[in-house]
Design goal:
By secondary structure, the chain is mostly beta strands. The chain contains no helices and eleven strands. Strands 1, 2, 3, 5, 6, 7, 9, 10 and 11 form a nine-stranded mixed β-sheet that branches. Strands 4-8 form a two-stranded antiparallel sheet. About 5% of the residues have low confidence.
Amino acid sequence: MAQDFGLTQIGYGNTGNIFASGDGWVQLNDITISTGQNVLTEGTLLGKVEASGEYIKWHKDATDGSQRLIGVLGCDVDATSGAVVAFMWTRGEFNKSKLVATDTVTAGQFAYGEIIIVEDY
């Protein structure tokens, strides 16, 4: 069940096997995925480019702001030929095998402990 606050939803319960638990999640709507990201699937780890404010695939060695993992893409998108609007989860406990990233995904806490990645239950 989610409570809608316009651009943000807060909910409890498991919305699919991407979540490791139903302890609660926060969804941020209306984010912009940057042009040229091609096809990204649900579960892609995202970082935010500071200069543009747009989101791209998280890369731990980047220097543009996207080196900070701040969200998990909540839907499939195709940004091959233009920026697209999507949503991401900014809080939750996620199954590692369901996540997609440029770098190796490791279990742990990210985004000040708001994103928790665990080995699959």
